[in-house]
Design brief:
heterodimer; A: 216 residues; alpha+beta; four-stranded antiparallel β-sheet; elongated; B: 225 residues
Chain lengths: 216, 225
């Protein structure tokens, strides 16, 4: 897992870091052949989402072995397939999330006789982070600081919206708890009632039975 | 992105501003046995902050869910000039056993880091976790650039604070899911067991009546009762 960082020249370092950042800002995980791994992310409706995946080459300089191929499927919360690619080493997807909810990206590595482990590098951004800020910057001679502050404004707006959402969820949960509490209250009365009525019916039935048998 | 000022200095500034931390990962994994996620930390003394919550758990009679074990391991650091391993592979930086959710926040040195979850129980559990690697450009980094303005460092700090608020929100949201799951499961189980209790009560009293009737029915034995 060597990531080449050139040390000569401070600016060169930063340039390489920048290029690495735009490519390797991501999560990586191991995928055994024949297994599926799924990653899900909660995406709000009408937000842009961008994903990029590639197989990490364990030997730098040699081409990837043919067996290292993965199948990727991205499904929405309701099961609609948003992206599917079969037997690839890398790819990307971007779509506007129409339905809000848990989107799942599943990776499957084809079965291979000596079980191999493939390292997959996956980058999934949605909402604020998915916006392409470089194109916004190129539109004019926009001040760099202004871009940063615009990004932060967007983030703050998202935080504000999230707070509303969290508050709604908390209210729902409170209602659910109150309803359960109510139900339990009525159920405990009902259980006393059931107990007493069952006892009453038993006694009445046995009494009439014994009277019929002329034992009482 | 070069402005009127010296090209390289501008590029430097641009790159630092753009490259510093919008790196965050928010995902949810299904952990059957061990699941590991790798993240590369570029600068020394970056802060790794994050949180994880076990979302879909098997609520049962046990009062506490066993949770998952969380470990943060550091990969080996390979010195590019010497092309040699300077630090051994998989040295454990942080470890937490049997928790259903926690926040963490620490400074790490550069290199590849591995975030691992181990599920001790048999049933697979869904874990939602968020990680953020934060970097604030310090004065020393840009000492060579005479156009360095302290306001850039302040903006970076502000951005870090905003990211920490976002992380906290995601943590609260995941915990909300966890609690909601517990509540719904409790509700179903309680209603189920109450109705079962009634049915059992009625059935038992019926059995009692049948047994007593059998005791007093004549054909069994005339003088026994």
């Amino acid at each position: 897992m060597n990531i080449p960082i050139q040390r000569k020249g401070f600016s060169l370092l930063l340039i390489s870091v920048f290029s690495l950042w735009s490519r390797a800002d991501s999560i990586r995980f191991d995928l055994e052949s024949g297994h599926t791994k799924c990653i899900s992310e909660d995406i709000k409706s009408n937000s842009m989402t961008v994903g990029k995946y590639q197989i990490v080459n364990p030997n730098d300089g040699h081409p990837l072995p043919d067996s290292h191929k993965i199948t990727v499927r991205v499904t929405s919360a309701y099961g609609n397939s948003q992206h599917y690619s079969d037997d690839v080493t890398e790819g990307h997807f971007a779509f506007q999330a129409v339905e809000a909810g848990d989107y799942m990206a599943c990776f499957f590595a084809a079965d291979h006789k000596p079980s191999t482990t493939i390292t997959v590098d996956f980058d999934w951004k949605s909402g604020v982070a998915a916006k392409d800020w470089t194109s916004v910057a190129k539109k004019g001679s926009v001040e760099l600081m202004e871009i940063e502050l615009k990004k932060m404004l967007d983030t703050v707006q998202t935080i504000h919206d999230e707070m509303y959402y969290l508050r709604e969820r908390e209210e729902e949960m409170q209602l659910l708890n109150k309803a359960t509490n109510n139900k339990m209250f009525w159920f405990s009365f009902l259980s006393i009632l059931v107990c007493l009525s069952v006892t009453g019916i038993q006694l009445w039935h046995l009494k009439s039975f014994f009277e019929k048998k002329k034992l009482i | 992105m070069a402005r009127g000022m010296g090209g390289e200095a501008a590029a430097l500034l641009c790159l630092l501003m753009m490259s510093a931390s919008w790196r965050a990962a928010a995902l949810s994994l299904i952990v059957t046995d061990v699941e590991c996620v790798y993240e590369y930390v570029y600068y020394k003394d970056d802060t790794v902050s994050g949180n994880f919550v076990v979302v879909d758990h098997d609520a049962s009679w046990r009062s506490s869910n066993p949770g998952v074990d969380f470990t943060l391991k550091r990969g080996s650091i390979i010195d590019p000039e010497l092309m040699q391993v300077t630090t051994p592979e998989n040295s454990i930086v942080y470890s937490l056993k049997g928790s259903t959710g926690d926040k963490f926040d620490f400074k790490v040195s550069s290199g590849m880091h591995k975030f691992c979850f181990h599920n001790p129980s048999n049933s697979p559990e869904a874990v939602a976790f968020n990680i953020h690697v934060g970097h604030i450009p310090k004065q020393q980094d840009l000492a060579k650039d005479e156009h360095f303005e302290p306001v850039n460092a302040k903006i970076a700090e502000l951005r870090e604070s905003l990211t920490s608020v976002t992380l906290e929100q995601k943590y609260l949201k995941a915990r909300g899911y966890h609690h909601r799951h517990t509540n719904e499961s409790t509700r179903k189980r309680v209603i189920g067991y109450t109705v079962g209790e009634y049915v059992l009560l009625v059935a038992l009293s019926g059995l009692q009546v049948v047994y007593i009737r059998k005791l007093f029915s004549k054909p069994v034995a005339y003088g026994r009762v």
